[in-house]
Structures are given as structure tokens and as C-alpha cells.
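User: Predict the structure for this protein chain, please.
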Amino acid sequence: MPAAVKRPLKVADETWIAAALLHQENPSRQDFTVQEIVDRAAREAITGELRPGVYVHALQHCVANRLPNPARYRMLFATGKTTRRLFRPGDAYHPARDGSKVVPAKEDIPEEYRHLVDWYLTEYVSKRTDAEKTDPILQLRGLGKEIWAGEDPDRYVRRVREGWE
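Assistant: Here is the predicted structure, written as C-alpha cells:
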């Protein structure tokens, strides 16, 4: 059983750890079912036994692209109705979750899981699927920005609206 942390482990952090372990153990998988995340948390037994909140955190509370109810975490991303992966910067998320927690603070999780935070920050967030790398719409990001260089947006709008009345 893992060593205890000085403060109680948050259910959200336990859920994130389970999802991160699944990603590390199955690098070819893009996502996991909510039940797989719950089962992995149960096998890991970080707090001794599975807490019932892990399920609802994997289903809703930690999911960036779901309406917050009530938790605002952005630790997971819904790829389907019941499938999840770890959230990555650049993923779409519900506006009410802006600025919320994405990854556990190292000091808040047991020492033997702290390497997961390093792995997430150095390897996972930089990993993109082939579709994300080759999506033609995403490839347009930033195209034409030089056209607007030096253009004040407010001045532009005023100029376009001249004579509208």
C-alpha cells in the first residue's frame, strides 16, 4: 500500500493518478472508459479502499469539457459519453472551468506517484495524435496573422462601421 501523504488525498487527485497510470501502462490507447479509470483506482488502493467519489469525478467533476457541477477541475477530457483521457493544454473546455486545476500539485500526492506529474508535463502534454498533427483545419491556425500585424482592432472596427447610419 502506498505511503500516506501529510494531508488527505483529494478524490480528484486520486482519479487523475489512476488515469495517468492507465496512459503510462497503455501508451497506444488514446482514451479509457470511466469504469476502467475507476477499476484502476480500486486496484491501486491509494487510500486503502476505493472511495465512491472516484466514479463521479471521472464521469463529471474532473472533466474539462463538461458543465461544472459543482467541481471545476480540468484534469480529464471527454472523448465520448463514457470515455476519458488526460486533459492537455489546448483542449477545449467549458468556460466556467477556466483557470482551474489541471494536474495535482506534487506535494499533495504520495511520493511514489510524483513521477507521474513530471511524465505528464514533459511527455504527455507534448504528445498529439496523428489526426491532431495533420488536421487541415488545425493547420490553418495562425495563417494570415501578418495581415493584421500593427492593426488596432478598435480602429479597424470604427473604420469599417463608418457611414453605416
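Residues 145 and 151 are 10 Å apart (CA to CA).
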